[in-house]
Amino acid sequence: MAKFATTTLFKTSAPRAETPMDKITRAATKILYEETEQRRIKTERLRKARLEREAGLPAEARKATSNGAGKKSRTKAAK
């Protein structure tokens, strides 16, 4: 059986240099994460405002606004 020195068994490789593609990927990931976080915060704020507004409305008004009564219907364009 061959004897192995600890230097040959557990060689540590030199850290790999960051490539330009790695830099771009890291920057894009950071931007996407920040945008997602901002969107989540905005959604929570708008949801809270909507729930507070609906809490003050009478039941009939809440029913009319919750089923999309104010939406326009789509029609097919005439040929």
Give the biggest sheet: none
What's the helix count? 3
Task: Report strand %.
Answer: under 5%
Shape: elongated
User: Roughly what is the average pLDDT, rounded to an integer?
Assistant: 80
Measured distance between first and last alpha carbons: 87 Å
Kindly provide the radius of gyration, computed on alpha-carbon positions and rounded to a whole number of angstroms.
Answer: 29 Å
Which oligomeric state applies?
single chain
Spell out the helices and strands N to C. Answer: HHH
Helix content: 55-70%
The tally of strands reads 0
Overall SS class: mainly alpha
Description:
This protein has a domain at 22-63. 62% of the residues lie in helices and 0% in strands. The protein is built from three helices and no strands. It is an all-alpha fold and 79 residues long. The longest helix is centred in the middle third of the chain and has 37 residues, at 20-56.
Q: Would you kindly provide a brief summary of this structure?
A:
With 79 residues, the protein is mainly α. The protein contains three helices and no strands.
